[in-house]
Write a structure and sequence with these properties.
Elements (H helix, E strand, L loop, with lengths): L1 H10 L8 H6 L1 H11 L3 E9 L7 E4 H12 L5 E12 L2 E11 L7 E12 L2 E8 L2 H8 L10
Parallel strand pairs: 1-6
Antiparallel strand pairs: 1-2, 3-4, 4-5, 5-6
Length: about 150
């Protein structure tokens, strides 16, 4: 079942060329995406944005996921993410990404190492925890951190 979880989480990620800032800021586009991916999420799906310990924000549903992303992307004109690895952790999937953002008036994208742990229950995503540091994501997934290059 865990390989199926990895495939599910991978399937729900945007392609590397998709500008998440444009997608999430456009109500009509987001509504179309939310309708398409909604069946793959539990109704009480939780997303947890990074913060200082004890200040993390837990948001519910796809609307909560969108709100978290919009808050994170506020300073970015464009933002895209590219999966580098999706690691099997049983009912959780550790997703490692390179995220690329560009601020207004700047031509060069900035690369950020992203990481998240997606929890799957009964074939649907129940929770996604996003982390500022990959070491925290490895720990939350119960995996040993190693050198994980693009696969």
């Amino acid at each position: 079942m865990s390989q199926e979880n990895v495939e599910l989480v991978r399937k729900l990620q945007p392609r590397a060329e998709v500008d998440l800032a444009a997608l999430l800021r456009n109500d009509d586009t987001w509504a179309t995406v939310a309708e398409a991916i909604g069946p793959f999420f539990h109704p009480g799906f939780e997303s947890v944005a990074p913060g200082l310990p004890g200040t993390e924000q837990v948001r519910v549903g796809l609307a909560g996921l969108r709100a978290s992303w919009l808050g994170w992307m506020e300073p970015w004109t464009t933002y895209r993410t590219e999966i580098t690895q999706a690691l099997d952790a049983g009912d959780r999937v550790l997703l490692l990404t390179y995220d690329y953002g560009r601020r207004e008036g700047v031509e060069q994208e900035i690369r950020v190492d992203g990481s998240a742990v997606w929890e799957v229950r009964e074939g649907k995503v129940a929770r996604a925890d996003f982390f500022a540091h990959r070491s925290e994501a490895f720990q939350a997934a119960g995996l040993q951190e190693q050198s994980h290059d693009v696969a």
